[in-house]
Amino acid sequence: MLLPDGYSDVPAGRIAAVVTHLEMTARPPRRHDPPGVWRLRRVERPALDWYRDLYRRVGEEWLWFSRARMSDATLAALNHAPGVEVHALSADGSDEGLLELDFREPGQCELVFFGVSSKLIGTGAGRYLMNRALELAWRNDVVRVWVHTCTFDHPSALAFYQRSGFRPFRRQIEVADDPRLDGTAPRDVARHVPVIE
Question: Helices H, strands E: what count in the chain?
């Protein structure tokens, strides 16, 4: 269903974001790594407590809530599925970045989750993580890599993806229950998105 031109009400207790889907259909030129000491490691069959903690620290400020609302069984089935890879970016002995790749669709790779904790924003760690993400995504018989971002994300996210070689191809509106009102996320996060009860 298409939304009508003009304003559309979002009910109290709900949030709405403009989601932009981006893709690349050829391997981009390799970009230089920024100076810094980071390490990316694959986490085989990630423990749920570990995953939920890192997911929260990376995404809570940007209202990542989909995995936080999943049952343990659903989350484990997804993160342990063949073709899904979870990677952690480590800095100073602590996991501070999350990269999740989904190769389940033949010839494609989705960057499902990509981000660094507030500790690393602005340090160059995001560029380092994207360089590794693209190396991993394009290593097999992949013809398309895609990602999505939304207006809840860091204000530089969309431009960052475009500088990395992604091209927008689709835009959608996502409406959901505000995770700050049901306890999925703390009430004081994501101040750039007002709570309306």
Answer: 4, 7
Confidence bin at 4 (pLDDT 50/70/90):
confident
Give the Å distances, CA to CA, from 17 to 55, 113, 148, 174. Answer: 20, 17, 12, 5
Tokens (6 digits) for 59: 């995404």
**47: three-class secondary structure by DSSP:** coil
> Any long-range contacts for 89-92 (C-beta under 8 Å, 24+ apart)?
89/38, 89/39, 89/40, 89/116, 89/120, 89/125, 89/128, 89/129, 89/132, 90/38, 90/39, 90/40, 90/41, 91/36, 91/37, 91/38, 91/119, 91/120, 91/125, 92/37
Q: Please state the pTM of the whole predicted model.
A: 0.95
- Could you report the per-residue pLDDT of 85-114, keeping only the tens digit for each? 999 999 999 999 999 999 999 999 999 999
pLDDT in tens, 118-132: 999 999 999 999 999
- CA dihedral sign, ordered 194, 56, 166, 79: negative
Cβ distance 10 to 175 under 8 Å?
yes
Q: What is the DSSP pairing of strand 144-150 with strand 108-116?
A: parallel
